[in-house]
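Question:
Now give any protein.
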Amino acid sequence: MTEFVILAALGGLGVGAGATFWLLRRQDRLNLSSAQHRAAEIVAQSQKEAENLRKEAELKAKDDMFKLREEFNREAEQSRNEQRELERRLEKREDQLEQRHQAQVKKERNLQHTEKKVHERRDHLEKKVQEAERLVTEQTQKLHEISTLNRQQAEELLLSRLDKQLADEVATRIQKQEALLRAAAEEKAREVLATSIQRYAADHTADTTVSTVDIPSDDIKGRIIGREGRNIRTFEKATGVDVIVDDTPGVVIVSAFDNIRRETAKLALAKLIQDGRIHPSRIEEVVKETQEEMERHILELGKQTCQEANIGPVHEKLMQLLGRLKFRTSYSQNVLQHSLEVAHLTGMMADELGLNGALARRCGLLHDVGKAADHEMEGGHPKIGAELARRYGETSKEVLHAIAGHHDDVTVDHIYTVLVAAADAISAARPGARRETLEKYVKRLEELEALACGFPGVDQVYAIQAGRELRVIANSHQLSDSEAVKTCREIARAIEQQLNYPGEIKVTVVRETRSVEFAR
């Protein structure tokens, strides 16, 4: 029984193995068929892709060939255009050369013709000279025959007469040359002055004797006055100014003839108002502090002015005196600004004349330094200024002489004194520098124009060159050329007889005729 089971088991295993083998073989055949089918598809796909690549390569090759052909055609066309342009230039150059050749031929012909004329004229002149020499010889012989003088006596008589004539002519020429030299010197002086004035121009401001201090509210006025007025009395005593507290809203007025004291009081009062503590001890403290600040400010102004004028080292006391001039006016003209302007003008004139410009600027800047202390010392400001400059280490004779002599108080021995005096006059008399001068200047120009407008045939009148020239526009329909000349002379005579003016005034009458047509 056991053997039967074993045999049955073995038989089953054999059948199972055979079935398994058959199934495996069938599966292999199926896999092989599938692989062959996939291989065929891959081959077909590869062939198709290869065909597409080949077609794309052919198309790209055709496109490249087309582009190359277009580029070749374009380059060929550009070459042809350049060649045509070159040919055109060559033709133009040939035409120009031909024209030049013809012009050269024409010039050569003209030159030959001119040379022929020159030779003919030279021959003619030689004949004329020979004829003149012959005539002179004949006339000389006739004169000798007619007169009783021999050749030597005639020459001596002729030379003596010629000496007398030449002596008169030499004297006349000397006088003429002296007049020309004098006119040239005056012209050079005017040129130097005009150049210096043109190179330097400064603004001028007019100071007053009062200053206003803004207050936040009118309630502050009572605190400024204080109980029974002790605050305002203490302030006026400490500063030396007058404080005016009136009904003017929002301001308090500080008045003083001394601009330094007035400016100090203005600053101190502004500090007290800002601080709010207004009582006698605080007032004295603030005023003292402000006075010290003002002294430092004055010294800084002097230093800045010396640096701006570029005059080299200056004693500290002189710089402080210069700074004080900032708060001094003369006929509404600021004295420090005037001194700085005189320094620049003097330096520029010295440069024009080939002198020391730095020394000239030093003379000009210090010329009015005495005005900073003229109320403290006796004498005029030139004398005071020279004494102060000498006291504070100024050793230059030119500077001391310019300070002392710029108003002709002493004999002028140095050229720099003359330049300082000229620059001082220019700065003071220039229109706009001083209030009275400006008013007189404008009035003089108005009178000058009004006088010329009163003549018949005058349309317009312009006073130019600061009143040194009068430009008159005449009516060409009312005045002829000769009448315009007569009118010009009459205007000049009327100015001489009726007006007062410095120097001379040039009168120019312009008569103009215009013709206008339109081409349509």
In short: The first strand starts at residue 210 and ends at 214. Residues 119 and 125 are 10 Å apart (CA to CA). The domain at 310-429 is CATH 1.10.3210.10 (Hypothetical protein af1432).
